[in-house]
Design brief:
335 residues; mainly alpha; Glutathione S-transferase Yfyf (Class Pi), Chain A, domain 2; 4-stranded mixed β-sheet; 9 helices; 34% helix; globular
């Protein structure tokens, strides 16, 4: 299964299914509690955004979740974590079955996150940037009491600007470095990545969060890359100018979020490392999964509270992780 094209830079296939699930159902899919299933992998940073936002907003009952295993092949993600290797609700072994149920000739990426309409077994959307925004804006009737405003109207323009730069240079930038097929493409991605990380460090020196004084969509999107940085991107993707632990501001910022309910309690480092090192066989042909890094530092004091800010604004932290959704070794294992 190849990800690198010799002599070329990496270009992400962004032909997503852009059907939306909305409060008014204008695309034919109204918000209905229990009707849909959010399919994710805890290994995937794009899916992890949806996992974090769903938990912060308290949508666990309204939007049940299926967790695919961390390793897939060219035929798509599988439900090998479930008894019999089938998702117990959708009854399928591979996520591609839900894509083909929507379009038998589907020829695009079979990606997570994906939201599946349970009655028909069809994927509604895999448009990961829009999914989390719609969880904030369209599912408000089912948010928990005290749910934070992750995409407040007065900050949306600034959040969008930050998100655009972070996606280009950081979220997708690590892939552009890791999947580069030429030295030139790698060098450009590497430079853009670390230039952006330096600018983010400067921004976060004086502000606890990226936009405003509370957690927003922007923080969720940056976190899911930072939490994977030392475990996979630094070595596996050759993003090795510095480790996250060697960037003091970003390291403290990432620890602050990790220790905030809804963030670190969704992270499975075992799945993350297995996915990248076992799936990307053209980068890691031996299939050896590294034993490190030492993860205990994620629970060290971060000192960011002195910058002010209130993580959830006028809201409250989410409660305990629901039964059945706890991550084994949620913080590591950190020992």
């Amino acid at each position: 299964m190849g990800y690198v094209t010799a002599g070329q830079g990496f270009s992400r296939d962004s032909r997503y299914l852009t059907t939306r699930i909305t409060a008014d159902g204008r695309d034919g899919y109204p918000v209905e509690p229990g009707r849909y299933r959010l399919v994710v992998s805890r290994a995937c940073p794009w899916a992890s955004r949806a996992v974090v936002v769903r938990r912060l907003l308290g949508l666990e009952e309204a939007l049940p979740m299926a967790v695919a295993g961390p390793v897939h092949d060219e035929r798509s993600w599988t439900f090998d974590l479930d008894p019999g290797g089938r998702d117990p609700v959708l009854g399928i072994k591979r996520l591609r079955e839900a894509y083909f149920a929507r379009d038998p000739g589907y020829d695009r990426g079979i990606t997570v996150p994906a939201i599946v309409d349970v009655p028909t077994g069809r994927v509604v959307t895999n448009d990961f940037p829009q999914i989390t925004l719609d969880l904030s804006l369209e599912w408000t009737a089912y948010h928990r009491p005290g749910a934070p405003a992750l995409y407040p109207p007065e900050l949306r323009a600034e959040i969008d600007g930050v998100n655009e730069a972070v996606y280009r240079d950081v979220n997708n930038g690590v892939y552009r470095a890791g999947f580069a097929g030429s030295q030139e493409a790698y060098a450009e991605a590497y430079r853009s990545l670390f230039d952006r990380l330096e600018r983010l460090s400067e921004r976060l020196e004086r502000s606890r969060y990226l936009v405003g004084d509370t957690i927003t969509e922007a923080d969720v999107r940056l976190f899911t890359t930072l939490v994977r940085f030392d475990a996979v991107y630094h070595g596996h993707f050759k993003c090795n100018r510095r480790k996250l632990t060697e960037m003091p501001v970003l390291w403290a910022y990432a620890r602050d979020l990790f220790q905030t309910p809804g963030f670190g309690d969704t992270v499975d480092f075992v799945h993350i490392k297995r996915h990248y090192h076992l799936v990307h066989t053209d980068i890691n042909p031996t299939g050896i999964v590294p034993a490190g890094p030492d993860l205990r530092g994620w629970l060290a004091p971060h000192g960011r509270a002195g910058l002010g800010g209130r993580p959830f604004g006028d809201g409250t932290a989410p409660g305990p992780v629901p039964p059945g959704e706890a991550v084994p070794y949620a913080h590591g294992p950190l020992g």
